[in-house]
Specification:
about 475 residues
């Protein structure tokens, strides 16, 4: 029991009436075996002190109040009662005493084990909504005990949960919803059964569960059998920090995108793959990790598959979900609430071979363990053709070192091909026409100037190309 100012009860002296009630208090555990004299503990045996009576006849109330300094925390005492009536008859206390009691002024030891801290505001999801989630917030639990060898024991543990940063909407076991609106903490459930643990896991927290993007906070308090509470504070903001824990609920999946290379592009040189990631919505837990995967889609070397980042070979059939050999971690952060996180990773030396097509995919995970869906599915990410070889181009007219008159001068013509030198395809063909007598260059119109290699002129066609001649000077090459 907590602070004890008096010991009291009733007594009856039957027909003759009551003469006196005497009280003996013995300390039997937690200190020397001594009796209380009314002012101190002494080694005297069977020391009785006289109680105060409210009357003589019938059921008489009695009390004993000389207890200042008598009791010490976590000790056990035995009470003996001796009653004498007016006829001289004495009721002697039993040898084992009338009652043993523990004196306990220590509040229980109480802790919240889940949701866990750090971080101060951990983020959780729900596997009933997102099957891949491993940080689940469908319950709360913790530990409780009554300290000291002579603690009175735990009587009850109460749980409250608020919804929203204002901490004025509370979970109700009557409605199984957040339906109580009040400023003071609303204690919904006594969750203590036995032992040194407590747990609260209502089915409604799993499905439909909490609301996405909302902050929640768990409050707990405990009481021992002596009546000591861990806290009697009613204001959420003033409630002791050790007995409350906030968390963020997030079931929105993040996304990751590839910026380099550009989807559908032809690339002749690339040193790094890069992109961005995003955790959409409000009250998000934030992006935690980004992974990248590379697929060899097609090409003459036939090495079709996903890159095993450990071996450097395209040997992974399907990358699945990270982590795994098909994924490389390309970004991470310890900061909570990051709505976006850029990523980049160097292209492994010798990975890309000209004339082959590849695909880069990216996947994001957030702090609540939600994962982007189907990150390596067909069409996801960015596909590109790698081509670091120049195309082949030929001139079919005019022929080398030939002479032509006006009648025999056909159009400038030729062919171009990229099928065996990179396979990205011919984009443009250009010609440079120089008058070697005047040392001037055709501009593409009817004029020549000294522009040199700045005077390349685009021709019509690609694989088969041609271009009409400008007016040429007679007897020039």
């Amino acid at each position: 029991m907590p602070a004890l100012a008096s010991i009291s009860g009733t007594a009856n002296g039957d027909l003759s009436g009551l003469s006196k009630v005497e009280v003996r208090i013995q300390r039997i555990a937690g200190g020397a075996d001594e009796d209380w004299t009314g002012s101190s503990w002494t080694a005297l045996n069977d020391h009785y002190s006289t109680a105060t009576l409210s009357g003589i006849t019938g059921n008489v109330d009695w009390s004993y109040t000389d207890l200042s300094g008598a009791f010490t925390n976590n000790q056990v005492y035995r009470l003996f009662l001796q009653v004498t009536d007016l006829a001289g008859h004495v009721r002697t206390a039993p040898v084992g005493g009338d009652r043993d009691f523990k004196y306990d002024q220590s509040a229980p030891s109480l802790a919240i084990s889940f949701p866990a801290s750090p971080p101060t505001q951990p983020a959780y999801s729900n596997d009933a909504i997102n099957a891949e989630a491993v940080r689940i917030s469908t319950y709360t639990w913790g530990t409780v005990s009554d300290p000291g060898v002579n603690g009175s024991g735990i009587s009850e543990v109460w749980v409250a949960m608020s919804s929203g940063v204002a901490e004025n909407v509370w979970w109700s076991t009557n409605t199984n919803t957040f339906s109580v609106n009040q400023a003071a903490i609303y204690w919904s459930s006594n969750v203590y059964l036995s032992g040194n643990n407590w747990i609260y896991a209502p089915a409604q927290w799993r499905a439909p569960g909490f609301s996405d993007g909302i902050d929640y906070k768990v409050f707990v308090r405990a009481r021992d059998k002596a009546g000591n509470w861990t806290s009697v504070e009613t204001a959420p903001a003033a409630f002791p920090a050790g007995y409350k824990q906030g968390f963020k609920y997030d079931v929105t999946r993040p996304t990751a995108t590839v910026a380099v290379p550009v989807n559908g592009s032809d690339v002749k040189a690339i040193t790094a793959f890069s992109g961005n990631s995003n955790d959409p919505g409000t009250g998000v837990s934030g992006v935690s990790y980004v992974y990248a995967a590379v697929e060899h889609v097609s090409g003459p070397d036939g090495l079709i598959g996903w890159l095993n980042w450990g071996t450097g070979l395209f040997s992974v059939a399907a990358p699945g979900y990270p982590p795994g050999p098909g994924w490389a971690q390309v970004a991470s952060t310890t900061v909570d609430g990051m709505t976006s996180l850029s990523w980049s990773t160097p292209v492994p030396a010798g990975l890309l071979i000209s004339s082959n097509t590849y695909r880069v995919a990216a996947v994001a995970l957030d702090k609540a363990s939600n994962v982007q869906q189907n990150p390596a599915a067909g069409g996801a990410g960015a596909a590109f053709r790698y081509d670091n070889q120049a195309p082949v181009v030929n001139s079919t007219f005019p022929l080398t070192n030939q002479a032509y008159n006006a009648a025999g001068l056909q159009a400038l013509a030729g062919t171009a091909n990229d099928g065996t030198t990179g396979a990205s395809g011919v984009k443009t063909v250009e010609v440079l026409l120089k008058d070697t007598i005047f040392n001037s260059y055709w501009r593409g119109d009817g004029n020549f100037d000294s522009g040199g290699y700045s005077n390349w002129v685009t021709v019509a066609g690609k694989e088969v190309w041609s271009r009409a001649w400008p007016t040429l000077q007679d007897n020039h090459t």
